[in-house]
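debug: dumping io for the single-chain case to check the tokenizer round-trip. Nothing else runs in this session.
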Amino acid sequence: MMFKRFKDVLLGVFIGGFMVTAIITAAASDSNGEWARLLPFSQHNLMTMRQVRNNIETFFVDEEKLPDEKELFYGSLKGMVGAIDDPYTRFVEPSQLKEEGMEMEGEYGGLGMYIGSREGKILVISPIEGTPAERVGVKPLDEIVKIDDTVVIGMDQNDVVKILRGEPNTTVTVWMRRTGEDELKSFDMTREIINIKTVRSRMMDDIAYIKLNNFHQKSAAELNDAITEAAGNGAKGIVLDMRNNPGGLLSVAVDVASLFLDGDLVVSLKGRVSRYDDSLYANRGKSTNLPLVVLINEGSASASEIVAGAVQDHKRAPLVGTKSYGKGSVQSLFPLPDMAGMYISIARYATPSGKIIDHKGLIPDYVVESDYTQVTSEDKQLQKALGVMKNVMLPKR
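debug: decoded output
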């Protein structure tokens, strides 16, 4: 009986191999080569994919766990895109793309932290102010190792996001590795609806302190309102805080830079395809003349680095804090059927002086090693920024 089963398996493999060979031979005889030009892979590789699917559907022990065709198809697309080994080039399923659209509009459910992938690790880019992640003490560059009982080392970034998000008022334990510490740190958090407040501002004597938390669709308008209000309150200078700001939309970065630079070059883009090469300039007539100091840290990424690099290069403002994250590539969303999509890194950007930020980050003019805190008296970086403004930039009284 055992021999008969083994023989049947061998016979099945033989027949499958014969069919693959026959189809490849038929395709090769296609005189016009039309089929070959339409196929995304060679006939041989497509037949191998067919054989893999057949093997899974025939022999996988837990039949009830078998994915349907759509799940298999999406899985193959994720694998194809993942082979590029770029954490920012990724396939996005329809449900996830919808969630990310909600996030760009400023509200979503979860724990309140932006994450990214670097060298195979899932890292926190920055916690969002006033969210569960910030309240329990999550910091930029913390590595996510385990979520509840699921080890996420080597997992796709999108899948980690799915695990982190969930129904409001549900709890989750996230285990993280922090640089310089041997033992993992565990954080117990309760999911909630995350309302992202873009701008927070207040007067500190005659200096306006403005915290810019992200680069979403309304960010530039809200920042402009804060600057106008500060000027009306008699502000003599602005400290713009972009610490733990993970970035966002490139167009918004240009709009934000336009509030401080009048028509100057903001950023240059260089891609493999020449149509993505570009030089983006600030709009004219929107900028303030108030003296400016900008705060950055290791949680400042992407659009934050574009703005910070531009004002630094044009000597519009000195930077205070620590080296930024170093996310210097530009992604474009390419729509796909079924409301799915894929983000592709189409270019790298450079600051006006030509500095490449990707994987390097920006070096502040005044380096101050300190953790970000909302307690003003304990915030060494903010105190340094205020000192630079008063002692270096404002006219002597």
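debug: round-trip ok. Residues 2-7, 9-23 have pLDDT under 50 and may be disordered.
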